[in-house]
Amino acid sequence: MKHTIVARVDNKPGVVSRISGLFTRRGYNIESLVTSVTGDPGVYHLTILVIGSEQEVELLINQLGRIMEVIDVHNVNEFAHVVRELMLIKVSCPVDKRSEILSLADILKCRVVGIGTDSAVFEITGDESKLDTIIRSFEPMGIMEIVRSGAIAIARD
Amino acid sequence: MNGIQYLIRFLEGKQTKVVFGYPGSAVLPIYEELQQSKLIHRMVRHEQGAVHAAEGYAKATGRVGVCLATSGPGATNLITGLCDAMLDSVPLLAITGQVETTSIGHDAFQEADVMGMTIPVTKHNFLIKEADSIPTILEEAWRITTTGRPGPVLVDIPKDVMTSELSSLQATPKLPRLRRDSRTFESVKNRILNVCNASFRPILLLGGGVVSAGAGEALLAFAEKHALPVVYTMMGKGAIPGRYPGNFGMVGIHGNPFANLAMYKSDLVIAVGCRFSDRTLPRPQVFSETRAVIHADIDPAELSKNVRSVVTVASDAYIFAKNLLELTFLPEKKEAWQRRFLNLCAQRVKEEVTQEVLTVAHCMDTINANYPGYRIVTDVGQHQLHAANRMDMVLPRGFITSGGLGTMGFGLPASIGASFAEDESPVILFTGDGSFQMCMQELATLPELQRPIKIFLFDNRSLGLVRQWHDVLYSGEASFCALPPWPDFCKIADAYGLDSYSFDSVEGFESGVKDMMNSSRHCLAVLHTDPGEKAPFFRERSCP
Question: CA-to-CA distance for B28 and B493, rounded, in angstroms?
Fold first, then answer.
């Protein structure tokens, strides 16, 4: 099962290396890891997506808690929370298909951020399932490239 | 005051007695300043010796061991010892020199990414980028290494930072954070009572955390109150005195059959300060399916890591022990179990040791019977496992060994560190022909020591434990386990100015060992023991 771990850490050199190294050392696979600034310049916000059983993730959180710079760390799956991810998707878009593709993008609520001679780039924000749906919808048109930012999450209460 | 003057003043202020180190370009400013300091500096002959010596001191005293190495190769030579200290939770401060801040990242001479490469082997590490942060970082480093579960901390200091003047001596430490864990004793007190009262065959399992927290006396009182059998892991050896009749000894693959029997026949294990390593418990899943486990450890990350427990308590071993002592369990059910095990205790005799050829077991039994009060340091291998099973503990922190990492070469430098213990206990080192050759350059460090070290080198002309494992897992001749050409260890001892002894018979050993132990000099005895002798090896299915 996929778990979303949220940690607040001191903004110190090497902190991301400590955290990513721990995943390797303890045999976990990071699905995504996003480091973001917060309102406090001394504090970073980390969102980590990891696949594992409840027990494995609990052990991982305990291990993360041992890192000195970690202020707090939670599995947000346990709370009400909001997850968002940004995706840029480049779709094959020859001139004769342009209006068809743009109207599909409109239905899917994708923002056009670039049009090339044979391609169009769309920007979409959403949770994982929404982005997956959009990828499936564009598949028949010919997807040329996808870049996803990785998820960021915040507890709702 | 510059950075180094502050560092020396800081170490003096923390009552550091001794620093083990090796000079080099990037730490020259430290060595220059050390000459004017009260700190004792012992120069090792390889940085690995410095870190193991600091570990030996820390394990013997519970105080912070301090070691010092130069940048690049000096620092990389510390890594084995840092990893050793990490696995055995040893309070240790490693100071390394680094190339100048302006050269960092330019592949300068003797530059290595020490911060990066020591992240996995330290509890925490620092690279000091500006002199003014030295006071804060040193204070944080000290607090981190001593607070909670101890562990090694490395501070990497560029040469130019060392010599910069500090504009402020103010330390504003923020680390370590105290984490609140909901699994307190209070929150599970009733569950502990219920689990204990439901149990017919409870047993107490002690790990290294009991030694580092000084919780042995309190747990012994608890065991005596309820007449509980007590077993320990290798790191928990010496946590409680051997004289307690219910002290069954060491458990695990290399433990003794009685201790293992007690553990495998129990229906409740109260485990304190141990992490259920694979050497203690090869099959943790099966273990917790067939009995209840109450697990207390200072490090919340150890709880439920290897063994599923019915009750977990995030607590220092001493506080846990004090809390346990206040509980009173229903006594009736346990009586049969206690009778059975106290009977077994009475029957328990050390296995007969053949007198015809010289064996490790016999030599250790002789030393154990005649020379109590020594601090025992071991290397890694068969001799270590014999010592863990055969030597009775008289002193607190009386058994110094490399448990988690099993670092061959640990023994000699660790015995040097242990000889600095404030209780002034004399030191015996047990080592093997394999382990000894991994750090034997530290013989050169011995003449500077005040107290003589008695070295017993068990020479069976092979890597005995590796060969033993080979025999368990494979058939045929063990690969690369014999060690020809065999050096003449007596000549090596002579070369370094030690008194040397060579024993190849029981009679020779028994008369010669007296001379050796009465001598006021460093002595090395080479004991030519039976290569066929096996170390204790326990398999669950061979449970008696």
Answer: 31
Q: Which CATH number fits domain A2-78: 3.40.630.30, 3.65.10.20, 3.40.50.11540, 3.30.70.260?
A: 3.30.70.260
Contact A21 B175 (CB under 8 A): no
Tens of pLDDT, residues B110-167: 999 999 999 999 999 999 999 999 999 999 999 999 999 999 999 999 999 999 999 9
Quote the CA–CA distance of A32 and A48 in Å, as a whole number.
Answer: 6
Cα end-to-end distance, chain A, whole Å? 23
Q: What is the pLDDT of residues B422-454, one digit of tens each?
A: 999 999 999 999 999 999 999 999 998 989 999
Superfamily in which the A82-155 domain is placed by CATH: ACT-like. Chain A, domain 2 (3.30.70.1150)
Question: What is the domain partition of chain A in residue ranges?
Answer: 2-78, 82-155
Rounded Cα–Cα distance for residues B249 and B317 (Å): 19
Among B175, B300, B304, whose Cβ lies nearest the Cβ of A65? B300
Chain A environment of B119 (Cβ under 8 Å): 14, 17-18, 21
- Residue B262 makes CB contacts below 8 A (sequence gap 6+) with B203, B229, B231, B248, B251, B341, B344
Partners of residue B305 in chain A, C-beta under 8 Å: 59, 62
